[in-house]
User: What shape does this take?
Amino acid sequence: MSALFKKEEVLHIKADKKDWEEFYREKMAAAPQRKEAFSTVSGKPIQALYTPDDIQNFDYGTSLGFPGRFPYTRGVQASMYRGRLWTMRMFAGLGTAEETNARFHHLVKYGQTGLSTAFDMPTLMGYDTDSDRARGECGKCGVAIDTLKDMEILFDGLPIDRLTTSMTINPPAPVLWAMYIAMAEKRGVPREKLGGTIQNDMLKEFIAQKTFMCPPEPSLRLIVDTIEFGSKAVPRWNTVSISGYHIREAGSTAVQELAFTLANGIAYVEAAVKRGLDVDAFAPRLSFFFNSHIDFFEEIAKFRAARRMWAHIMRHRFKAKKERSWWLRFHTQTAGCSLTAQQPFNNVVRTAVEALAAVLGGTQSLHTNAFDEVLAIPTEEAATIALRTQQILAEETGIVNAIDPLGGSYYIETLTEEMEQAAWEYIEKIDDMGGMLKAIEKNYPQMEIADAAYRFQQDFDAKKKIMVGVNKYTIEEDIPVDIYHADDALEERQIARTNRVKNDRDQKRVQACLNRLAQACVDGENVMPYLIDAASAYATLQEMCDVFRNVFGVYTDPGTF
Amino acid sequence: MGASGSVQDARGKALGVVEYEIITIHFLCFRDLFFGIRCPGLKNRATIMPALKRKIRILVAKPGLDGHDRGARIIARAFRDAGFEVIYTGLHQSPEQIVMAAIQEDVDLIGLSSLAAAHLHLFRRVMDLLREQGADDILVIGGGIIPDRDIPKLKAVGVKEIFLPGTPLDTIIDWVREHVKPR
Assistant: This one.
């Protein structure tokens, strides 16, 4: 036991606090509180003052411990940012592969330390640019990738043996990963050396981000294929980035983001263990991705609670033995939904505060939103300011000097504890339903989030929640920024390139690869080697995804609200 | 599970043969709606509410591949709470599917939501199809991430109003009450 406070001291403080509360009420009688109640952006009530009384049962050893040691509340690495700064990983993707490649080179030149790829909607959904369903969408909110050729152009001249690459891709994640591996091997970088991440988190797609291809069960099977393949053949690759970001953007509370993300993680681990994989062979390569929203302390508490909870889940629920299996390593993105189209330069400040919370919460990597990201794909100038925001935090502010500098704050520790308890309640509820797959089928997380989103909207309309420049301090303005516009001709250019690739490739070889892929899908064989063969033969994204659709069927949105 | 192949298979087919499936949620507590279960019995509202005066009927629709449905689902709820009849298409609908649903459901208004920058192409296509089908008496409004410079272009093809992020729900509801008369 390493309780922070002696019992009798807490009793004293409790008595004194009562006295102070009287005093507070007297003062308030003369000049009342600005609001009747104070709450976080998630709607969690916050009291006026936190004291040792709030954390009286707090045990330093079991609740906090030390950085790099179980339960990792204070950070997964012993040295945290004194050893190595977080990876500055700006999410980028626009137009065709050439344009995104140029943006990557720009960001690397300006000091970015990892790559992160945003794909356009057709790519995210597994359609080629020439598909009827893709019309009008090419390159609009990310880069269009139809074949290995595009992947080669996308990473041309970039040191993929040194820089790690993250790809935000879900239903077609195995396909894009296969293209990346094929591209690297063509350049002479073997798969064992490749480092990076595919998001590959389908459960949160059904819950929140809503890019679908196949129904949940076969989707989960494909994910386990990637986990299995990665643990054997691409050991430095993070095969799933279990993501709360989109859950939060869809309108969840911080607790829901935390709980549903960890519950999704539990589902992946269960599925992989069911396949017969040793938990310690793959768990170190599961990573996480959280949102950093505008409510500063609530977010820091969320990150700290997440680490502690995952460590317990992996150690006690799944009996993992390796310490690395207990680590919750995470990427953070500042909250897109906290930004405003009105007075958009204010977004620089919001993003800086959110980035600060992510760093104080111990993130391993960070994307800071550009101020114009709420209007369109960021311009180069806006993306540069966002990257500079991280560099200023890292190099100038001194917040990186001490590890977990807010640890021990009565407020932060209370919030962390309460966040954790509320999230456990959700996880137990989902366990009782039979796990996340079943909960999703019952539409449970989807409707919990929809309820929270609607509540926030009502509070916003009632001005109980304020967004500066939107429902307070508004002005008449013309949006004073130049925004990115995708070139209308790029769709035709992209289609022309894919047609050239199709004409030049060995058609028989492609068909044979696709046939073998289909057979592997049916037989329950791991699809990854077959996808790499097909990608190397320049099969298109949609050709490979159509194999999945044909074998596994297509999922459609239930359309509830 | 949950896959209604008819919708997915419909792409590219002529409008007349497009099948669609819509859940009419108005009469249900949405919490009771289990994933994937269709409610064909509820499609025929006439058998359920024959005597009541017709309410304003609205189709909230998500065209294209965009998956951002937070706003669409919030506005669908707000319309329902305001007393309108609401049909929500769900995600990933082609313009053909949306126009077909609007005609078959006999709606007074279509609300299109787009946050993935393909609004010019998709909204225009919806407007063209409505005209082709002689259904251009159905009003169309839009919302989402729509750059200022595109608003006049959308209004030029007949979109009545565009509501941008930050618009209070009541503003949109008031607009509907003022501009839409149930037929």
The two ends of chain B are 37 Å apart (CA to CA).
